[in-house]
Design brief:
The protein is an all-alpha fold. It contains 8 helices and no strands.
């Protein structure tokens, strides 16, 4: 009988949740690294890496420290973290239904967050051409 193994995880250079997307975008202009984020948040390098890659979500106190380091508004960032946590726990479809969002849009959101700017532009162009047809 063959031994079952977990599927390989894809390396991610693009974050997978909204907080990570905004954190990474705010880090880039300042030239901040994961090590800088770890120091700013008084957290381990591994936890900072997981936050930047969208694998983990920060506590309120860590969010406050990180937003002050990268220049994000704390209130907006914390709302984003809470939203990401709810979606992680209950799923995008459930949250979309309870917030009045179109569930079709929430399906796309996770995909769109992982696209580069170039890929996003290509997808938008394809979608617009499909709508015109």
């Amino acid at each position: 009988m063959a031994k079952r193994t977990a599927p390989p995880q894809q390396p991610t250079d693009r974050p997978t949740n909204r907080f990570a997307v905004s954190l990474k975008a705010a880090m880039e202009p300042h030239g901040l690294t994961v090590k800088d984020i770890a120091e700013a948040g008084n957290i381990s390098y591994e936890h900072a890496r997981r936050l930047v890659n969208g694998i983990a979500l920060p506590s309120k106190s860590v969010t406050r420290l990180l937003t002050s380091k990268v220049g994000l508004a704390f209130d907006n960032a914390w709302k984003t973290v809470l939203s990401d946590k709810l979606e992680k726990q209950f799923g995008k479809q459930v949250i979309a239904e309870h917030t009045g969002k179109n569930p079709r849009l929430s399906e796309w959101e996770g995909v769109l967050l992982r696209l580069t700017e170039e890929q996003n532009a290509m997808l938008m162009q394809m979608a617009r051409s499909l709508v015109k047809s």
